[in-house]
C-alpha cells in the first residue's frame, strides 16, 4: 500500500492536483519543512499542524512554482514509515534540481506526519 501511496503522491504533485494531494494527508497532519518559512515567516518552529494551513502552504507552493515537478529517485518502506528521495525541479529552463528526502508516517492509509529535508541545488 505504501508504494502505491508514493506513486499517487508524486503523480498528483506533477499534475498539480491539489485535491488529490490533500486527500492523502490526515486532518491533524504534522508537517515540518524549512521551506515553510518562505510562505509563513511568522510560524515558529517550521511546522504545520493542521490541514487548513497545509492547504494554504501547498496552494502557495503551486502558485509560486507553476512548473514544479518531482522525479522519484528511491523509496524505502518499513512498517508504517516511508522514506522517499526525489528530485524537485521548479523550472526546467534553469536546468537545475534539488534533492529532497521526505519521511512519511502513515496512519490508516493517510500521511499523519511528514518531514522534508532539502539538499543543495545541482545542475541537470
Keywords, please?
single chain, 124 residues, alpha+beta, Nuclear Transport Factor 2, Chain: A, six-stranded mixed sheet
Detail the topology: elements first, then pairings.
Blueprint: H1 2-15, H2 18-23, E1 25-32, H3 36-39, E2 47-48, H4 51-64, E3 69-78, E4 81-89, E5 96-107, E6 110-123
Parallel strand pairs: 1-6
Antiparallel strand pairs: 1-2, 3-4, 4-5, 5-6
How would you characterize this protein structure?
A six-stranded mixed sheet has the order 2-1-6-5-4-3. By secondary structure, the protein is an alpha+beta fold. It is globular and about 40 Å long. It has one domain: Nuclear Transport Factor 2, Chain: A (Roll), CATH 3.10.450. 31% of the residues lie in helices and 44% in strands. The mean pLDDT is 90.
Summarize the structure.
By secondary structure, the protein is of the alpha+beta class.
